[in-house]
Specification:
This protein has about 270 residues and is mostly helical. It has one domain. The chain has twelve helices and no strands. Helix 4 packs across helix 11, helix 7 runs parallel beside helix 9 and helix 7 packs antiparallel against helix 12.
Length: about 270
């Protein structure tokens, strides 16, 4: 077993776990981290970047099991709150499932690069900054209060997350806030909405590209990175929920803008960050 490769996989797992639920783009950071470390071949790294996100989303399932189980069983039993949340998540998942299945590979082929990441970070940062400066009126204080119409609109906004650098969490949290969902409810709904999207994308990418992994060691590296992403994401989820209860996302807006400008500068000038 290649120790350096395992160490790189662990670093990628930590990057994924920390960035998946922050509005700063986990995919963008994973692409940059893989290039920084010269992690694996391009083919293997691209599959790893998508598949490892399933570890982070498993942390959401673990942390919110009771509420998610209530949403799943509510679809069958008709229990009001559970059924409403379950249907809301289904409605919100439809747009990205359709677009992702139709154009996911094209996005991966043409937009998994530094310039796309930089532009996604900058534009997303400016949107976060604007929303925080002009906070909308809250009409849905809890995740159970999000209407079907609002859920579907959040799902449409989530389609933007296919572009690296945009951030699925950033798009859904800020998009929900623009629709009048409270910061806490928007964050939790974003957590839940990632489950079908990320698991679906990860399994589909593995099915389409399993042939790039040449042996048992490759699968061990992928499994180890996924485990690390689970542990680090579980920690981040608990910290983030406590954070959004007291603070805004302005720090992430500035982080996105500054880091995007730095990445864009190096990408356009040809200088190397490393």
């Amino acid at each position: 077993m290649d120790f350096i490769l395992l160490l790189q996989a662990a670093i990628m797992g930590i990057v994924e776990g920390i960035t998946e639920f922050l509005p700063i783009s986990s995919t963008g950071h994973l692409i940059l981290a893989s290039e920084l470390m010269d992690f694996w071949t391009k083919q293997k790294s691209d599959v790893f970047v998508v598949a490892i996100q399933m570890g982070a989303i498993a942390a959401v399932i673990y942390e919110y099991w009771n509420k998610l189980w209530g949403a799943a069983t509510g679809l069958v039993t008709g229990e009001k709150k559970g059924r409403h949340l379950g249907l809301s998540l289904i409605l919100a998942s439809i747009p990205i499932m359709l677009v992702g299945l139709s154009f996911g590979q094209e996005v991966k082929d043409y937009l998994f690069n530094d310039i796309s990441v930089a532009m996604g970070l900058i534009i997303g940062g400016l949107i976060i900054w604007w929303v925080e400066k002009n906070p909308p009126k809250v009409n849905a204080a809890e995740v159970d209060n999000i209407s079907f119409k609002e859920a579907f609109y959040i799902g449409l906004i989530q389609v933007l997350a296919l572009i690296p650098g945009t951030s699925r969490s950033g798009a859904t949290i800020i998009g929900a806030m623009m629709l009048g969902v409270s910061r806490k409810a928007a964050t939790e709904f974003s957590f839940f909405l990632g489950i079908p999207v990320i698991i679906g994308a990860g399994l589909l990418d593995l099915y389409r590209n399993y042939h790039v992994f040449s042996g048992a060691q490759d699968w061990w590296v992928l499994g180890f990175g996924t485990l690390v992403s689970f542990v680090s994401a579980l920690f981040l989820i608990r910290v983030l929920v406590a954070y959004v209860a007291k603070r805004d996302f302005m720090v992430f807006a500035w982080y996105r803008i500054i880091s995007g400008l730095i990445i864009l500068f190096f990408a356009l000038t040809g200088y190397k960050l490393w």
